[in-house]
């Protein structure tokens, strides 16, 4: 069979990796796909630099539109990032009847509904394994491997930068800012780290996972997002003492009244595999009603792991492009006419367990007052410990059983107003998972 | 679209689970597959018992041939087990042009080459996600998720019974026989546990994983298989002290001169996720050249997890049956005309690290003699410890660096013949993985 012709938009880290792996493993890939997959054209900013990598056999342009409108190109691979130029190029590629492979979580989390609708209309595939958790085939696992299941929830470490920072904070006892600087020096964090450390990147990915799991439209704007920049070293140490590690988790869960969609630092029991995912590694735990818990682990970013996911999608498209569109795998795992419109729950309506830390004046009656307020709000305490701070104050840590977040907020407002409470209450969520 | 009509061969644990999940999650599955998937006929031993489960709407027969020859059936699901009747029914189903879903690892590990060739010839699919690691979509991950990679090796805990036994032996300090009896009482082990405890079931699954990873024919008869029935409690304790846990691993690895294919108890570093897979859970670690390590974890057996895998295959077949056979996913991940004939290495030619334990007379010169023999054989020692046994003897434990197994055998023969060696040498393999 004649080779599949690929047009690469972008030849940065992931684009370069895709070129390298397609070249080095060309034979292995053709043995699987049944035909060769060749890069026929690339769009880049720096033509000279691109030529040094791809040589003279590949068409090189600075205008992405040259590629998406090139009639010889079968599949467009979008690796530019962002949601402006990338958006225009992907929409035009679809209009031109081309299949699209993309690693762009921001684009899909924000404009996925429009993009998938256009692709469905035109009968082309838009696939995005590389957009979530790098080389781990988690999109395929949920979309195709767990189709028998009513998925109940999933929880994932889906940002390597923050997991690296949290691992270092714990193992070396260092504060956030010190570890962030080191991560930047090592190349694990960007110069402007906001997207990673504030949980936005994780929320983009979680938004896509939630759609795949539950068959709902992408709704990034409804996600609750908290990062790790204000996480205190002492809470990591206290958590450890209680048998927990703190991870930045993306969590989405089906409730009777809606879907939870949230990214935040989370206490996870130490014996849970997720708690043992260290450094820049990613992992996603998925709970299905038939299969029970399954976990997927691997490198969530980087040149070659992400290229691995891009190329897996290229092989899938190579195979499926011959099938009629109605028999292909749906973009978001569910048929477009079978999507659900279950609401995303406001954060006040989620259910979680909670870790609460506060500093109080050390005098009789304090614990009784705190316990009564929590109990009045229907919050039941699983465990607590208290340790002196100096001679007149004490730190108290509570671990609650599952409660509605709005009720916790109400109790914390009352607690915060008590005269003997000497600090803002630190509140972290606890997920016991499986 | 009209429903897909499924014929179930067998309505035992997995067959019953498949019926239940297909019924309970019918709507969720149809939302994904684009049409309903219905059981139209079942073949069972006990018609009365089957009727109580499936009611009157489903055709029930005692003769599987009624199902595989029924023109109304689109997909045959083989859940009988064994390789006699199941073999005849699967071959006849293929001959009748039906797609086949099977959970039967013994059948495919022993007769896969014949079955896949017949299926290719006839243009039908034979899929087997449920045959390896229950509900974990590991077949799909290797076959489709990692297609970019030249896979270097994989190592898996792919038998839940033995992992349960090893977990209990370690955590409770009990000997093999005591834990086996308990596992039988709890239903984790069969009355005749040979297939599980001697590693045969794991070797069936490993044989299939090796074919998917490397594009080689199934060659169960070339696998090296050792079980856990002669594993001593004291080796589990010594391993723990050295920072390792003992797991029954299936390991397959690409070497310059061939493929390693082996199942045996293995020391795994404690910090490796695989070492932390406890109880009856399964996990497979796959190393690809682009993606690096990825791990897949979940329940490896049981009614509903295995049904989850069967149904994922049913949905795949439902989608792909409309595609022309040349554009479907190949049975063993590689195109039939692109399979490789790399040899499976004899066990003497594998490379591994080794754990050696022996009892010796406690007198000067012993350690020097042992060290010289190992060194003469080119075996380098990473660590060792010695502890007294009574007043005149000592136990010595060596951990070697990577060595050729045949060289280790030669050295052990010489060591065993030494006059001061008072016990048979215990030899276990050590894999440091990643």
Automatic annotation (TrEMBL), chains A, B:
EC number: 1.1.1.3
Species of the source: Pollutimonas subterranea
Name of the protein this chain belongs to: Homoserine dehydrogenase
Domain of life: Bacteria
Entry GO MF terms: homoserine dehydrogenase activity; metal ion binding; NADP binding
Record-listed NADPH binding positions: 105
GO BP, sorted A to Z: methionine biosynthetic process; threonine biosynthetic process
Involved pathway(s): Amino-acid biosynthesis; L-threonine biosynthesis; L-threonine from L-aspartate: step 3/5; Amino-acid biosynthesis; L-methionine biosynthesis via de novo pathway; L-homoserine from L-aspartate: step 3/3
Active site: 205
PANTHER family: HOMOSERINE DEHYDROGENASE
């Amino acid at each position: 069979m004649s080779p599949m012709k690929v047009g690469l938009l972008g030849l940065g880290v992931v684009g370069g990796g895709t070129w390298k792996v397609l070249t080095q493993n060309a034979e292995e890939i053709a043995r699987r796909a049944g035909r060769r997959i060749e890069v026929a054209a690339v769009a880049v900013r720096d033509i000279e630099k691109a030529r040094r990598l791809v040589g003279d056999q590949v068409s090189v342009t600075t205008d992405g539109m040259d590629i998406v409108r090139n009639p010889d190109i079968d599949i467009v691979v979008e690796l530019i990032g962002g949601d402006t130029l990338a958006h225009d190029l992907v929409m035009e590629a679809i209009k031109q009847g081309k299949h699209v492979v993309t690693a762009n979580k921001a684009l899909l989390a924000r404009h996925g509904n429009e993009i998938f609708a256009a692709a469905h209309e035109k009968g082309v595939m838009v696939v995005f394994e590389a957009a979530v958790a790098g080389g781990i085939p988690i999109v395929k696992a949920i979309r195709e491997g767990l189709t028998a299941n009513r998925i109940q929830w999933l929880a994932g470490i889906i940002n390597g930068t923050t997991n690296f920072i949290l691992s270092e904070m714990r193992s070396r006892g260092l504060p956030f800012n010190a570890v962030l600087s080191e991560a930047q020096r090592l190349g694990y964090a960007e110069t402007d780290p906001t997207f990673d450390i504030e949980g936005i990147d994780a929320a983009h990915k979680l938004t896509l996972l939630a759609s795949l799991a539950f068959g709902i439209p992408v709704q990034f704007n409804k996600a609750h997002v908290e990062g790790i920049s204000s996480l205190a070293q002492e809470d990591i140490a206290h958590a450890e003492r209680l048998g927990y590690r703190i991870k930045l988790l993306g969590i989405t869960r089906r409730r009777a009244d809606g879907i939870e969609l949230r990214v935040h630092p989370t206490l996870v029991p130490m014996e849970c595999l997720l708690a043992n995912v260290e450094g820049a590694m990613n992992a996603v735990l998925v709970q299905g009603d038939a299969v029970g818990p399954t976990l997927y682990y691997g490198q969530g970013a980087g040149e070659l792991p992400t290229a691995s996911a891009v190329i897996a999608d290229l092989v899938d498209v190579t195979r499926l492009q011959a099938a009629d569109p109605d028999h292909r795998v749906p973009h978001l795992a569910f048929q477009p006419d079978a999507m659900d419109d279950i609401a995303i729950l406001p954060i006040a309506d989620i259910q979680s367990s909670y870790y609460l830390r506060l500093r109080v004046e050390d005098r009789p009656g304090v614990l009784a007052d705190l316990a009564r307020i929590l109990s009045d709000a229907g919050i039941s305490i699983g465990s607590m410990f208290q340790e002196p701070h100096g001679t007149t104050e004490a730190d108290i840590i509570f671990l609650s059983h599952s409660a509605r977040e709005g009720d916790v907020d109400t109790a914390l407002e009352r607690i915060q107003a008590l005269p003997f409470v000497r600090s803002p209450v630190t509140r972290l969520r606890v997920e016991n998972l499986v």
